[in-house]
Write a structure and sequence with these properties.
The chain is α+β, with helices and mostly antiparallel strands. 13% of the residues lie in helices and 32% in strands. Strands 3, 4, 5, 8, 9, 11, 12 and 15 form an eight-stranded mixed β-sheet that branches.
Length: 245
Amino acid sequence: MSEERGRAGQHLPEASYVLPATAAPSAAVAGERGRFPVRRIYCVGQNYASHAREMGTDPKREPPFFFTKPATALLADQGRLPYPPRTQNLHHEVELVVALKTGGRRIALARALEHVYGYAVGNDFTRRDLQAAAKETGRPWDVAKGFDHSAALGPITPVARLGHAARGAIWLTVNGLEKQRADLDDMTWSVAEVIAELSTYFELAPGDLIYTGTPAGVGPVVAGDVLVGGIEGLGTLTTVVAPAE
């Protein structure tokens, strides 16, 4: 057996690939020249009771559910999001994003926050009409959630600089008009609880991002809209919706 085979996902010498290897996705870190290498993107569904209600769901405290986006869906601060194809109803969803420095399986709740590198403002863009169709037929959400540029992400602020994000305002404006506002303390499941629960489904690892859910006020955007999301202590994330390509 070749010594270059390695584990799935392991980086191999360039000569081992039959096509040129693409660069690994990464994210900016506030105050640092170095970047944060992104491995996987996990997302939490309906982690605010207010959003669950506006989506027609009973907001009772059940275990969180998860979906994923490809790491290649990242869109940096000040980025342009071309209006995606196959949708007439593109929605914004401002979220707290958790960046992991270490991982593991079945992480204990009491030690979950030890795995966090930092936090950022994110926007989980969603093709809402495709999501609704998937819900009706019981099909996966991939085309509704995991399209190109659908995971907007601001600079990651390390825990060493600001501590853990447990409370503080989270908001989003569209063309200067406020559409979403809540407090991180309104989350149904805390960051530690999300990490502990997620690690029972997946082996988490350094470089993983977790989008922790959005509060009420999600709504449609169109080409030309300028979105600014913010979280107290973590700065802002600006995205411009561009015409379809």
